[in-house]
């Protein structure tokens, strides 16, 4: 067995013992918290005792709007590198970006026609 392997294993075991010792010692040496029950209670926006059930069902429109926001937000991020390199890309880059924005706009029109953004 090489000396490097023995040294590495000794260091690994020593670090393991030190970590275990630190966790055990903090359990016994650290301050005792008598208010731990208060820390484990529910706290929602200043209300200590929440009213109602937390397992309510949300409308699918919340999720749909969130997904659409992420979709359009990520696609708009693709416009920043184009804006930085607009001079190097020339007219072909301008045409490609207008095609990209046209696809985005057609997707927005499709979503609007499907009434996905109406809250009725």
UniProtKB/TrEMBL annotation:
<comment type="similarity">
    <text>Belongs to the complex I subunit 3 family.</text>
</comment>
<keyword id="KW-0813">Transport</keyword>
<keyword id="KW-1003">Cell membrane</keyword>
<keyword id="KW-0812">Transmembrane</keyword>
<dbReference type="InterPro" id="IPR023043">
    <property type="entry name" value="NAD(P)H_OxRDtase_bac/plastid"/>
</dbReference>
<dbReference type="InterPro" id="IPR000440">
    <property type="entry name" value="NADH_UbQ/plastoQ_OxRdtase_su3"/>
</dbReference>
<comment type="subunit">
    <text>NDH-1 is composed of 14 different subunits. Subunits NuoA, H, J, K, L, M, N constitute the membrane sector of the complex.</text>
</comment>
<keyword id="KW-0520">NAD</keyword>
<dbReference type="InterPro" id="IPR038430">
    <property type="entry name" value="NDAH_ubi_oxred_su3_sf"/>
</dbReference>
<keyword id="KW-1133">Transmembrane helix</keyword>
<dbReference type="GO" id="GO:0005886">
    <property type="term" value="C:plasma membrane"/>
</dbReference>
<feature type="transmembrane region" description="Helical">
    <location>
        <begin position="89"/>
        <end position="112"/>
    </location>
</feature>
<dbReference type="GO" id="GO:0048038">
    <property type="term" value="F:quinone binding"/>
</dbReference>
<dbReference type="GO" id="GO:0008137">
    <property type="term" value="F:NADH dehydrogenase (ubiquinone) activity"/>
</dbReference>
<dbReference type="GO" id="GO:0050136">
    <property type="term" value="F:NADH dehydrogenase (quinone) (non-electrogenic) activity"/>
</dbReference>
<keyword id="KW-0874">Quinone</keyword>
<feature type="transmembrane region" description="Helical">
    <location>
        <begin position="6"/>
        <end position="29"/>
    </location>
</feature>
<feature type="transmembrane region" description="Helical">
    <location>
        <begin position="62"/>
        <end position="83"/>
    </location>
</feature>
<comment type="function">
    <text>NDH-1 shuttles electrons from NADH, via FMN and iron-sulfur (Fe-S) centers, to quinones in the respiratory chain. The immediate electron acceptor for the enzyme in this species is believed to be ubiquinone. Couples the redox reaction to proton translocation (for every two electrons transferred, four hydrogen ions are translocated across the cytoplasmic membrane), and thus conserves the redox energy in a proton gradient.</text>
</comment>
<keyword id="KW-0830">Ubiquinone</keyword>
<dbReference type="Pfam" id="PF00507">
    <property type="entry name" value="Oxidored_q4"/>
</dbReference>
<keyword id="KW-0472">Membrane</keyword>
<dbReference type="GO" id="GO:0030964">
    <property type="term" value="C:NADH dehydrogenase complex"/>
</dbReference>
<protein>
    <recommendedName>
        <fullName>NADH-quinone oxidoreductase subunit A</fullName>
        <ecNumber>7.1.1.-</ecNumber>
    </recommendedName>
</protein>
<keyword id="KW-1278">Translocase</keyword>
